[in-house]
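INFO batch 0412 | record 1 of 1 | parsing
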Amino acid sequence: MGTIVRRLGWLGALAAATIGLAAPAQQPKPATPPTVPNSAAQAAPPPAQGTHTLTGADVTAWLDGYMPYALHSGDVAGAVVTVVRDGQVIAARGYGFADIAKRRPVDPARTLFRPGSVSKLVTWTAVMQQVEAGRIDLDADVTRYLDFRIPAYQGRPITMRQIMTHTAGFEEANKKLITYDAADVEPIGAYLKRHVPARVYAPGTTPAYSNWATTLAGYIVERVSGMRFDDYVEQRIFRPLDMRTASFRQPLPAPLRSLAAEGYPLASEAPKPFEIVVPGPAGALSASGLDMAKFMIAHLEQGRGILRPETAALMHASPLGKIDPRSLIPPLNRMELGFFDTDINGRKVIAHLGDTNQMHTSLHLFLAERTGLYVSFNAAGREGAAHVIRGQLFQDFADRYFPATMRDGRVDAATAKRHAQAMAGQWQVSRGSFTNFVDILNLFGQANATVDAAGRLVIPSVKGANGVPVTWVEISPYVWRDVAGHDRLAAQLVNGKPVRWSFDLVSPFMVWDRVPAYRSAAWLMPALYASIAVLLLTVLAWPAGWWIRRRTQSAATLGGWSRRAVRATRIMALADLLMLGGWFWLISVLFGDVAPADAALLLVQFASVIVFVGAVGISGWNAWCAVHDGRRWTRKLWAALVLLATLVLLWMAWAFHLLAITVHY
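INFO prediction complete | emitting tokens
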């Protein structure tokens, strides 16, 4: 869910079978491209010199040359693309297969894709309808709308505006985000009440994308409207827009099931079952490409059919005066109310991206140009190819039809080098888990900013579409541009020093902050590797020593408590290594198709307390014995190294919450 993009190198609905529905599912029919009355039509601005005019014929020919090769080379099964302009669908194209085994092609009017977090735009539209009706106040404490408690953060509540801008301050909620078991579908209120994620940032200050908070917004719509969420969006959004294939219901209603595209990891692999997005309002939508075109047109035409023009304008360009400046890094893109900016070539563009495990989507609205671009894929593709294709498609579309008319500035080399050096160090992304065992990913996922031989900023974990680290050139103080693309990277300064940065693609909903010294991978990772080596050699010394004594017919040099201390230390060294291996296995399967049972999580965590703490105690005992039992200095040194190694592992386990006893993550 949300955007786990390749360039980072790395991220409950109501079932028809379990509730009574007020509105029966509608049979799909071939969609009629929506239009606007001639009186509302506006002439397209003349194209810049040397560019292409955006017409149905031109964009269709361009897409037909662009998409098939992209799908084949990326091992992506299929895709749908729709383009709208001036209230009309000017292109609706299907590529590849919705079902490879049955050779069923993608049909823009009838094939249902899962747009993942693009679903949130429907949820945010529903919220704004209730704002318009006076039932939701964007700046009021949301607890007034709830029947359960959200603990305050330093006495500060949460507002709907903060939820819609992903600055409510929640850590990530990963458990049962997407499954394949329809039994996991539950009322969204039950999902929310089962676990409230920790609030780790002061509200309004830090962008940190949250599926849980979006689901909370959907629940508030339920509460204030008196309608179940699925019923609400069908009656208040899909029906007015004639979106006949669109549904949040899981599993899909019977008339729609045969229209759903299969989801594939790779086109060359077998498909996965229908994905159940447990926090439904955050990503459970199924819809055809043409139905999503109708949704784009509604927003491009000032909310026509679903919102008043002034409400749509507020949603698309929220006032800066209502936003905490700490959450912004000018001039980078920012959150609006639900949409986020993806401005390009000097054009105002609002958008959303979406990902399930198999399906990957983007929706972009060029507001002044009254143009929308939607693309959805039913496979991730080789090395996340769908992420790259959707990003490049947007940029190439913008360059073809709405090119830039201004050039960047440039910072002199000496100043650029000094600014790059100021950025050097370890940085931690704001979106993540910070109070449970998933926090360990924040050790291995830190971004390391460095300076190359030419004095340019280098962040190896931020990669371009070609899979190599982006080359950044400073275009104004503490603002860099990707020399091969459109993204900018910028830093937020406090007292003249960079304390936070992000880049355009993700800046609306996540940022990087300095890593506290006690969590820094700069020293902790080398210490961890050295500690593992020391413990491994300690364990291997046990059978090696036995074999040597047997070959030489020599007796053990230690006896009594000293011998017991050495033996216990070796046992605990082995236990430490096994515990680390257990954690690596657990984290690797945690987000797989079958998550470990809660009992297994608790077992590993209780064992961690015993092993990591016990290893320090036992190795400390052995070190004390080594000092007092006359061992030679090399063995005293090794005993000290083993003690230090166990302390490093205990520190890591404590600092990154491997010792937190919880089944929530």
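INFO post-check: DSSP finds 16 helices and 17 strands in the chain.
INFO record closed
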